[in-house]
Design goal:
single chain, 10 helices, binds uracil, binds iron/sulfur cluster
């Protein structure tokens, strides 16, 4: 059978490939249109996400939505997911073994959606495309590989804790419509 986003999501919901399955309430596969041009990758579900089974629905999510609104977009136009699909207890950082176990789901989602702009939110998704880089140095610096632009941004939760980072994130977000128009794609 051909792979599909629904198939990935149903595998994620019952996944027991790593120990995060033992402490989660619900797995959070991610969501968005199958043909989204912009693809956001966060770190992992927080408390609200774990309860609702949806990504970025707490304070970080509200900030992300306001940033999208500022560039004339909304979350229904973009794909949003995380490097690990289950909540790390007490929001601790995901462990290498958990990241490795979960990696295939994100790889498949990206291969299926084929976005033109991939936005990494925070260190763990940045590491996939900018290994060893420091977020404070490279945020907002686009890397182009083939048809795809990779844009490393702060994590919204981190940006919410710092005025300077919040301002930087707003500036960096303005690159998204620019990259979209360069690619010839609109928001969807
Ligand atoms: N933070 C994340 O990294 N992901 C979410 O889904 C929510 C908060
Ligand atoms: Fe499976 Fe990923 Fe959840 Fe681990 S975090 S149980 S690999 S879906």
């Amino acid at each position: 059978m051909d792979d599909s986003l629904e198939r990935v999501a149903s595998e994620v919901r019952i996944c027991i490939k790593c120990p995060l399955s033992e402490t989660r309430t619900q797995a959070v596969p991610g969501e968005g249109p199958a043909n989204a041009a912009v693809f956001f990758i966060g770190e992992g579900p927080g408390r609200t996400e774990d309860e609702k089974g949806r990504p970025f629905v707490g304070a970080s999510g509200r900030f992300l939505e306001s940033l999208l609104r500022d560039i004339g977009m909304d979350r229904s136009q973009v794909f949003i997911t995380n490097v690990v699909k289950c909540r790390p207890p007490d929001n601790r950082d995901p462990k290498p073994l958990e990241l490795a176990a979960c990696r295939d789901y994100l790889d498949r989602q990206i291969a299926l959606v084929r976005p033109v702009v991939v936005v990494t939110l925070g260190r763990y998704s940045m590491e996939r495309y900018f290994p060893g880089a420091a977020i404070t140095k490279i945020h907002g610096q686009v890397k182009r590989i083939g048809e795809v632009s990779y844009l490393p941004l702060f994590h919204p939760a981190a940006a919410l804790r710092s005025d300077a980072w919040r301002a930087a994130m707003k500036e960096d977000f303005k690159l998204i419509p620019k990259l979209l128009s360069e690619s010839g794609r609109s928001g969807l």
